[in-house]
Amino acid sequence: MLAIRGKKVSFYKRAQILVADTWSVLEGQGDGSFDDISSLTIFADYRIPQVLVHLKAIKYSEKLMKKLREGTIFQSGDKEEVEIRGCSIWCCALICKHLLELYEKKGQDMREKINAVLLDYHLWDYARDHREEMKNTPFHRVRCIYY
């Protein structure tokens, strides 16, 4: 549990991945059926923030970019580490929201096909497939049990 400006903040990446993978593998059926799958966020690992910066969905300060380029290893709960993860979660929530709104304007209900889990999978695959293009976009490093 982390404290940010006096508020407790928790990241439960491993638990989210278990639920997301169960939902995904079982195609939302049977034991993989979750009516609230859209309440999950992205997993906020190291690759998702990197790809968001690469795609210019988020922008880091020059000070933070310098630390990342130098290979600074953050401690779990460091302000910068939590901000990177938190901003990535918020950015992806906004991406999902705006995508759903765009489809809604076209008269299409895409709630079954657009959520943070699927966006996380898509961005992770993008990062893997575009690794060479992204080699100059640094990612954050942290040693902890949450990744």
Automatic annotation (TrEMBL):
The protein's Enzyme Commission number: 3.2.2.-
Keyword tRNA processing included in the entry's annotation: no
InterPro entries (alphabetical): Q_salvage (IPR019438)
Keywords: Hydrolase
Cytoplasm as UniProt keyword: no
Entry GO MF terms: hydrolase activity
Biological process annotations from GO: tRNA modification
Catalytic reaction list: queuosine 5'-phosphate + H2O = queuine + D-ribose 5-phosphate
Function as written in the Swiss-Prot or TrEMBL entry: Catalyzes the hydrolysis of queuosine 5'-phosphate, releasing the nucleobase queuine (q). Is required for salvage of queuine from exogenous queuosine (Q) that is imported and then converted to queuosine 5'-phosphate intracellularly.
Family: Belongs to the QNG1 protein family.
PANTHER family with a match to the protein in the record: QUEUOSINE 5'-PHOSPHATE N-GLYCOSYLASE_HYDROLASE, QUEUOSINE 5'-PHOSPHATE N-GLYCOSYLASE_HYDROLASE-RELATED
Protein name: Queuosine 5'-phosphate N-glycosylase/hydrolase
Gene source species: Falco tinnunculus
